[in-house]
Specification:
It is built from 9 helices and 8 strands. By secondary structure, it is of the alpha/beta class. The longest helix is centred in the N-terminal third of the chain and has 14 residues. The structure holds 1,3-dihydroxyacetonephosphate. The site of 1,3-dihydroxyacetonephosphate (13P) has 14 residues, from β8.
């Protein structure tokens, strides 16, 4: 299983350091096949020791340059970051990232050999139209994306399940991941209110290779308990 923590705009540099101290200690007991990723805010990127992969939540598709407020490849390289989230719904919806922009980022960081966790997910009104509409919506989010890229992980995160405390149902996750499995061969993560109470059930679903966790990942002990459960 893959366990990925997305801090979003939470934690400071100092609390992230304390987080890694706790997490590293706790996950020393994790199963050897399990992989842990943590995506802190850009201000907390640093050199950390431990059995996890440090990733960035976002970056601009350029080495460096005049892109106010953004970070580029040069800033990631300083901390040996080679893993990136691309296409998160919060960036698509709140920051207005178009599919074209998302695909441009994907191409740039793919050319750099980055491991990419590529996020897709439908809004509630699409889910309410049923499975066919959901699948069509999700497949459209692969437009311009090389789904055969060897360092790709796909995260399915229904927007209506993010931060709501209401995860998708087992049936919804199972049918969506089954459809995604026909489209892509890479590992498939589920994200959206995954927590210590539902992790075992989610982890047991066919075609679920891991989870991308927001709120429940903010506490190192809680996130570790999901990994160790
Ligand atoms: P929550 O776990 O808070 O629902 O967030 C999921 C998410 O968006 C992870 O990227």
């Amino acid at each position: 299983m893959i366990f990925a923590a997305n801090f979003k705009t939470n934690h400071t540099r100092s609390s992230t350091k304390a987080y890694f101290d706790t997490l590293s200690q706790k996950i020393a007991a994790k199963k050897s096949g399990d992989k842990v990723y943590v995506f802190p805010p850009a201000t907390a990127l640093d050199h950390y020791e431990g059995d996890f992969t440090l990733g960035a939540q976002n970056a601009y598709p350029a080495q460096k340059g005049a892109f106010t407020g953004e970070i580029g490849l040069e800033q990631l390289e300083e901390f040996s970051v080679k893993t990136l989230l691309i296409g998160h719904s919060e960036r698509r919806e709140l920051l207005g990232e178009s599919q074209e922009k998302v695909a441009e980022k994907f191409d740039f960081f793919k050319a750099q050999g980055f491991e990419i966790i590529y996020c897709i997910g439908e809004p509630l009104e699409v889910r309410q139209e049923g499975d066919a509409a959901v699948n069509a919506y999700l497949l459209a989010q692969f437009e311009g994306i090389d789904t055969g890229y060897e360092n790709l992980i796909v995260a399915y995160e229904p927007i209506w399940a993010i931060g709501t405390g209401r995860s998708a149902t087992i049936e919804e996750i199972a049918s969506t991941h089954q459809a995604l499995r026909k489209a892509v061969a890479c590992p498939l993560l589920y994200g959206g209110s995954a927590n210590p109470d539902n992790i075992r059930e989610i982890a047991s679903i066919d075609n679920v290779d891991g989870v991308l966790v927001g709120s429940a990942s903010l506490d190192a002990e809680k996130f570790a308990s999901m990994i160790l459960s």
